[in-house]
Design a protein that fits this description.
Elements: E1 23-24, E2 38-40, E3 47-48, E4 56-60, H1 61-66, H2 72-77, E5 82-88, E6 91-96, E7 99-100, E8 112-116, E9 119-120, H3 124-127, E10 134-141, H4 145-148, E11 155-161, E12 170-178, E13 182-192, E14 197-208, E15 212-213, E16 221-222, E17 225-239, E18 242-255, E19 261-262, E20 287-301, E21 306-324, E22 333-353, E23 357-378, H5 380-385, E24 396-400, E25 403-406, E26 411-433, E27 438-461, E28 483-501, E29 506-517, E30 520-526, E31 534-540, E32 543-555, E33 559-571, E34 574-576, E35 584-586, E36 589-602, E37 607-622, E38 624-627, E39 630-633, E40 645-658, E41 661-672, E42 675-676, E43 686-687, E44 690-701, E45 706-713, E46 721-725, E47 735-738, E48 743-752
Parallel strand pairs: 8-11
Antiparallel strand pairs: 1-2, 2-3, 4-10, 5-6, 6-7, 8-9, 10-11, 12-13, 12-48, 13-14, 14-17, 15-16, 17-18, 18-20, 19-47, 20-21, 21-22, 22-23, 23-26, 24-25, 26-27, 27-28, 28-29, 29-32, 30-31, 32-33, 33-36, 34-35, 36-37, 37-40, 38-39, 40-41, 41-44, 42-43, 44-45, 45-48, 46-47
Membrane topology: Multi-pass membrane protein
Organism: Bowmanella denitrificans
Signal peptide: 1-25
Length: 753
């Protein structure tokens, strides 16, 4: 790259959320350091970014590669209003403006939509994929149900992979070596078969040893990483007016397990600090996940005014996992879980574009089938012995003078759930110039959902000793009977916004939108007597978020800024219950307000940077939860995983060294103030404010496509935790999941032109 051209792109590049292409306005060749004017399609049409009345942040392919952003936690650290808590490859929580996506169970619907190439992949087990050979990643904040449909009541995340093209043969190969025996290899190649057909293949393989030593199984380390992924893309372009993209992707994850260490009870030879050796039992099985996806995208320019688009998708997922619930080497509590998911979807859009207005009409269909199983293994000798306060198991329970009953060591409560969801929607979006200064944006989506839920329970022991205290298990025993129920949910999601063109560089906007998350039916199993069973059903109603937002966006030749002030109110807020046997909880009313700001600038021909900041104030207005069967008043508490203050700052420098070689250096620092991990806001289940520093330095040759880089992530080796509480909280032994320590290494990259 010529040193007279921009050395960085703004971190907040606003790019397409809906269509497979981004259009960049061409700038004239000049020695003046400028930021490109960018045209986006977030509202299903081409618009200059300053005219889009939606708060969004995005990362282009160039930014993802430059900062080696391959996971959502690091992307979230640089995105105002967005938090990602990635406990494992398949257990992630996404939080946008203080509102968390739903849990991992088969029943609950998501709050935040996750789209891969326009296809809904929102269920949590399949939401996280390796970010390799990516065109762009975007985070759109606020209710986006009109634009993105189901599950976008508080925001959406869209990932667009690089597609095949018919223009040129090109590719790259990249490898990394680092501490904890890291090695990875990633590559892609685009082959032009002819003027009509292009093929792209991409793959990634990564393996890293765990960084937590386990006293219970010292030959293996926890928090390891073992991932393999591949993608095949094909583009057929029979004419200038139509093209079809087919994408197949596969990913396989197989890890030993994650450290869930008790902060209450110390294992023999251990302690309760999240940052020292763990003391967990030998894993009953490794964590394993396999997922496949098929996507077909069709775009047809019928004529100069009309355009038809089709998005077809099919997803499959298989997942197994086991974890130590009590987080010690005592055999007190353990869990085994599995999920199976498959979904198909189809969306059609017809757009009309005139000089003063663009109208988009569409319809979508979504069918999802998910099943999940959970084995809750309880040692009754520890349960009745008083664990975690008393660490010695109680082999027998005295029930009368001279009479004792033996207690078992492994009482299994098995729960199995099936969920089928059929969803159809119709939508319309309008963008209209009212006059030279005012622009109207409006949209409406209506959705019909039908959900069918089935559940069964079982109880048995593994050691042959009958259960005295839990004869029908902890989760209820249906004696082989599967009970089902169904419910219908209808949702209307409107939005409206006005934009005022202050001048050629700055636009102001104000908007209101209503987000809906579909409710779901639920079933609980009770045993009035040891030999009988009863089922109770309930219906979790639609969740409604009403949001108001004002903002300003502007761009000059060397500066881009995006500011937003918002408030919202939730009705029937669905969140995670303190009692895991309850699953989700209805928090009643909740509210929040906040502000977000981002500035990105090119300072000189060799130096650029950015800074962003977000503030949010959250409160449960009326929330009564349960824990161990007792009511808990959480009204007035803050949302979980919602720090009041977050900010990040970054600098990027590069200059010519010799010939076509350049040196470069970039650094980012991201900070979060304190926040709670659970809705009861306990002081010992809280993360203090902390910051993470990433640093990269190296050499690159743009002409020949070579790069060598030294990198350090969490360069200051900050100690932090991803989560505290988890299933152990129910038994008084909350566990902590440690965050990543310092990772460092070297990266090599070669591109083929």
């Amino acid at each position: 790259m010529n040193c007279s051209q921009p050395s960085i792109r703004p971190l907040a590049l606003l790019v397409s959320m809906s269509l497979p292409h981004v259009v960049y306005a061409q700038s004239p060749q000049t020695t003046e350091h400028r930021i490109e004017e960018i045209v986006v399609t977030v509202q299903q049409q081409n618009q200059v970014i300053t005219e889009v009345p939606v708060a969004l942040s995005a990362f282009s392919n160039k930014e993802l590669e430059k900062m080696n952003l391959t996971d959502f936690e690091r992307i979230a650290a640089l995105t105002p209003g967005f938090i990602s808590q990635q406990q494992t490859d398949s257990s992630a929580s996404f939080v946008i403006r203080g509102v968390e996506a739903a849990g991992t169970g088969a029943a609950a619907e998501p709050t935040i939509s996750i789209f891969y190439n326009g296809v809904d992949s929102s269920r949590s087990r399949g939401a996280v994929k390796e970010l390799y050979d990516i065109e762009r990643v975007e985070v759109v904040k606020g209710p986006q149900g009109t634009l993105f449909g189901r599950g976008a009541s508080t925001g959406a995340i869209a990932i667009h992979t690089r597609k095949a093209d018919t223009q040129e043969n090109s590719g790259f190969v990249e490898s990394k070596l680092g501490n904890y025996n890291l090695y990875s290899l990633t590559g892609a190649y685009n082959l032009v078969v002819n003027d009509e057909l292009g093929i792209r293949v991409a793959g990634s393989r990564r393996k890293r040893d765990g960084y937590v030593f386990n006293l219970g199984e010292p030959e293996r380390k926890l928090n390891d990483d073992d991932m393999a992924a591949a993608r095949f893309s094909m583009r057929w372009q029979p004419s200038d007016s139509i093209h079809l993209d087919f994408i197949y992707d596969h990913q396989n994850d197989k890890d030993y397990g994650v450290s869930t260490k008790s902060i209450i009870a110390a294992s023999p030879g251990g302690d309760t600090s999240p940052f020292t050796h763990a003391g967990q039992n030998k894993q009953l099985k490794d964590q394993a996940r396999r997922q496949n996806g098929y996507t077909l995208l069709v775009d047809w320019d019928i004529n100069q005014d009309w355009r038809l688009s089709s998005i077809s998708g099919h997803r499959q997922l298989w997942f197994d996992n086991a974890f130590d619930i009590d987080g010690t080497t005592y055999h007190a509590f353990a869990g085994i879980e599995y999920d199976r998911q498959k979904a198909i979807s189809q969306e059609l859009r017809l757009a009309y574009d005139s000089q003063s207005a663009t109208i988009t009409l569409g319809a979508s269909y979504y069918r999802d089938e998910a099943s999940s199983g959970f084995d809750f293994v309880i040692n009754e000798q520890h349960l009745l012995g008083g664990f975690p306060n008393v660490l010695t198991p109680l082999p027998e329970l005295p029930v009368a003078p001279g009479v004792s009953v033996p207690l078992n060591e492994a009482n299994v409560s098995r729960s199995y759930t099936e969920n089928k969801r059929h969803s159809q929607s119709v939508f319309a979006n309008l963008n209209m110039d009212l006059n030279a200064h005012w622009i109207l944006d409006a949209g409406l989506r209506y959705t019909w959902d039908r959900a069918t839920l089935a559940r069964s329970g079982d109880a048995f022991t593994l050691d042959g000793v009958g259960s005295f205290v839990l004869p029908n298990g902890f989760l209820g025993n249906s004696f082989g009977e599967m009970h089902s129920t169904d419910a219908d949910f209808n949702m209307l999601s409107p939005r409206v916004a006005l934009t005022y063109r202050l001048n050629e560089a700055v636009n102001l906007y104000a908007g209101m939108s209503i987000g809906k998350r579909a409710g779901y039916p639920d079933i609980s199993i009770q045993n009035p007597t040891a030999d009988s069973v009863s089922f109770s059903t309930k219906e979790i109603g639609n969740e409604t978020l009403t949001s108001y937002e004002i903002g300003a966006k502007g761009q000059t030749s060397n500066l881009y800024f995006d500011l937003a002030l918002y408030s919202y109110q939730y009705d029937d807020f669905q969140t995670v219950s303190l009692d895991i046997t309850e699953g989700a909880a209805n928090a009643g009313k909740a509210k929040a307000w906040g502000l977000e700001g981002l500035i990105s600038a090119e300072f000189t021909d060799w130096l650029g940077g950015f800074v962003n900041y977000a503030y949010i104030d959250t409160e449960y207005v009326n929330f009564f939860d349960t824990l161990n069967g007792e009511p808990v008043d959480l009204s007035g508490n803050r949302f979980r995983l919602a720090p009041k203050n977050t900010f990040s700052v970054g600098l990027d420098a590069s200059a010519t060294l010799s010939g076509s070689w350049r040196w470069f250096a970039n650094t980012q620092y991201a900070y979060r103030s304190d926040y709670f991990f659970n809705n009861d806001n306990l002081a010992n289940e809280r993360q203090d404010g902390f910051g993470l520093l990433d640093v990269r330095i190296g050499l690159e040759d743009d002409t020949r496509g070579y790069k060598i880089e030294l990198f350090a992530e969490n360069a200051l080796d900050e100690q932090w935790v991803r989560d505290i509480g988890n299933a152990g909280k129910l038994f008084g032994t909350s566990t902590a999941i440690r965050g990543n320590p310092r990772f460092y290494g070297v990266r090599f990259r070669a591109e083929f032109f």
